[in-house]
């Protein structure tokens, strides 16, 4: 059995102040926090102009919030020595840039702890500020600046991207209309099976122009490496990708394709409900009772649900709902087919069946057919690239929704973009040694 060796207790080492070039010379416990009196380990006592030794002229104090230990904030009381040159009379004080940024309220150790707490532990800024014993704005400014410097502004952050996903996201709910951003996701790790997706960027607005401008701002060499773009049914994203990434294949996400059919089924059900009953769905109405069962895959139906649908479709006035439900189920079966070649053939058959010869009374299927025919190439492209979907994009959208809820909302879009990138930008391995 291996026995680790122990050194003598050393507060400097325990608090990792030796990494900052500090030595602890005193300590005290104030109400709610620990105060460590520190000095620079190597005094800067030699004049940099003439090389003569300086004469000590007292000290000045600098207070810095450091990483907490337990639930007690830690304050560094740094005694900075001042000197006067015995030769040329020059005055100077010790350089503390290894300890903290000039005029900063946090030590470098405290800033690093705050960034790791935000990125790895997903703490809120309020909790980080409480741990450091500083004001919310002080913690927020420090951690966002450090996050931008160390992670977000890294020029290599966009390297290796070959597959991207694009979607819209509501970042702020307002009385006068929601405010949207366009979210761009790196799906390359998902397709390669090497890890989860990550957030690349967020741009204000949701339009073709917004996505096109973002793509145009990327280097041409980067754009040439993009092979696949996953998206929903919004034609603006499709057009922007076609213009800026002509060599990339557009893939319409299965979730949104099935959702088109699901929406058509819902609209058809409501129309028939109103036509046959003269009112919207109520408890006890067959169509209203089966509204969720209609969206369940046939392979997942219970005996009770199957009997409910059989009774529903036995009524002649529900034939339009049955026809729309049949197309919806065929699309699900096509996507669930393990053999993607057979799945592609099944989806092609579905598209063909709703684009020609659909009776005029099935208005929802006719509208669905026009959409599927227009985006047929993008829909079928998924079966040639089965690991490409906007599912990870929707997952990141969910994480951003949770972030916004934890922060009780954001009013500043710049801060929201920075916090979102730190939350979902895939930076955890950069800060967590065991995740590299």
Brief rundown of the structure:
Helices cover 45% and strands 19% of the residues.
The share of residues in helices is 40-55%
Q: How far is the first residue's CA from the last residue's CA?
A: 28 Å
Largest sheet: 5 strands, mixed
**Whole-number count of domains:** 3
Report the strand count: 10
- The coarse silhouette is elongated
Helix and strand pattern: HEEEEEHHHEEHEHHEHEHHHHHHHHHH
Radius of gyration computed on alpha carbons: 31 Å
Class inferred from helices and paired strands: alpha/beta
Query: What is the strand content?
Result: 15-25%
Tally of helical segments: 18
Mean residue pLDDT: 91
Which residues form runs of ≥5 with pLDDT under 50? none
Write the layout of secondary structure elements.
Blueprint: H1 11-14, E1 22-30, E2 33-40, E3 54-69, E4 72-85, E5 91-93, H2 108-119, H3 125-132, H4 136-152, E6 163-172, E7 179-186, H5 188-192, E8 198-204, H6 208-216, H7 220-225, E9 228-231, H8 235-244, E10 249-252, H9 254-277, H10 286-289, H11 303-313, H12 319-336, H13 340-355, H14 363-374, H15 376-384, H16 391-406, H17 413-424, H18 428-431
Parallel strand pairs: 2-4, 6-9, 9-10
Antiparallel strand pairs: 1-2, 3-4, 4-5, 6-7, 7-8
Helix pairs in contact: 2-3, 2-4, 3-4, 4-17, 6-8, 9-12, 9-14, 12-13, 13-14, 13-15, 16-17
């Amino acid at each position: 059995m291996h026995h680790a060796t122990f050194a003598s207790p050393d507060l400097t080492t325990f608090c990792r102040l030796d990494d900052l070039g500090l030595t602890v010379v005193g300590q005290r416990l104030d109400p709610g926090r620990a105060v460590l009196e520190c000095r620079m380990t190597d005094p800067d006592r030699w004049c940099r102009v003439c090389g003569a030794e300086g004469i000590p002229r007292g000290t000045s104090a600098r207070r810095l919030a450091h990483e907490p230990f337990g639930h007690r904030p830690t304050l560094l009381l740094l005694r900075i020595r001042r000197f006067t040159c015995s030769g040329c009379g020059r005055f100077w004080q010790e350089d503390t840039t290894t300890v903290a940024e000039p005029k900063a309220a946090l030590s470098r150790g405290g800033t690093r702890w705050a960034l790791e707490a935000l990125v790895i532990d997903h703490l809120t800024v309020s909790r980080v500020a409480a741990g450091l014993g500083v004001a919310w704005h002080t913690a927020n400014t420090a951690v966002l600046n450090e996050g931008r410097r160390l992670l977000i502004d890294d020029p290599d952050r966009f390297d290796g991207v070959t597959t991207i996903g694009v979607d819209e996201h509501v970042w702020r709910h307002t009385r006068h209309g929601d405010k949207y951003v366009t979210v761009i996701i790196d799906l390359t790790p998902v397709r390669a099976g090497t890890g989860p997706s990550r957030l690349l960027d967020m741009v204000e607005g949701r339009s073709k122009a917004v996505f096109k401008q973002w793509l145009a701002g990327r280097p041409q060499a980067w754009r040439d490496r993009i092979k696949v773009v996953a998206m929903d049914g919004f034609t603006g994203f499709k057009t922007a990708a076609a213009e800026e990434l002509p060599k990339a294949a557009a893939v319409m996400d299965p979730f949104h394709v099935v959702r088109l059919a699901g929406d058509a089924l819902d609209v058809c059900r409501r129309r028939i409900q109103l036509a046959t009953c003269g009112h919207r769905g109520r408890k006890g109405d067959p169509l209203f009772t089966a509204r969720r069962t209609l969206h369940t895959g046939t392979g997942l139906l219970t005996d009770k649900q199957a009997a409910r649908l059989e009774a529903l479709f036995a009524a002649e006035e529900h034939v339009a709902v049955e026809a729309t439900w049949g197309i919806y189920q065929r699309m699900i079966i096509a996507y669930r087919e393990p053999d993607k070649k057979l799945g592609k053939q099944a989806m092609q058959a579905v598209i063909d069946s709703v684009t020609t010869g659909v009776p005029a009374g099935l208005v929802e299927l006719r509208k669905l057919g026009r959409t599927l025919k227009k985006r047929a190439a993008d829909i079928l492209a998924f079966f040639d690239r089965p690991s490409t979907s906007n599912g990870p994009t929707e997952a990141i959208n969910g994480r951003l929704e949770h972030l916004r809820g934890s922060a009780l909302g954001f009013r500043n879009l710049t801060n929201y973009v920075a916090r979102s990138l730190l939350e979902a930008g895939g930076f955890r391995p950069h800060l967590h040694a065991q995740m590299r």
